[in-house]
Specification:
It comes from Streptomyces caeni. Keywords: Membrane, Transmembrane, Transmembrane helix. This is DUF4235 domain-containing protein. This protein is mostly helical. The chain is 74% helix and 0% strand. The radius of gyration is 19 Å and the shape is elongated. The relative contact order is 0.16.
Length: 102
């Protein structure tokens, strides 16, 4: 049983670089997806920023909501795919029984 305890904490350490790489890649893809989605929704190349003086609250909040949703989906896909890959290769799920990142 002591050997089991020692091997479990090592899996999250192995997962960290994998999770980091997947998180970075998913963030980049989410950024591309957001720019394309915004262009399809509003027919504009540039999405509004919270500090854009010429944009209204509705437009800024819409952009933030769309961007947040896309980044959350990309993060979840990357986290889940990475965890499944680690589980397939090691036989151990890389997170605590209850937990995850949050």
């Amino acid at each position: 049983m002591a050997k089991d305890r020692k091997s479990k904490p090592k899996i999250p350490l192995v997962y960290k670089p994998v999770g980091f790489a997947l998180g970075w890649a998913s963030g980049a893809l989410a950024g591309v997806a957001f720019r394309r989605t915004w262009k399809a929704l509003r027919h504009e190349d540039d999405a509004p920023d919270a500090l854009d003086r010429d944009r209204g609250w509705g437009e800024i909040l819409l952009a933030a909501a769309v961007q947040g949703a896309l980044f959350a989906v990309a993060r979840s896909v990357a986290d889940r795919a990475g965890a499944k890959a680690i589980e397939r290769s090691t036989g151990v799920w890389p997170a605590a029984a209850k937990g995850g990142r949050d």
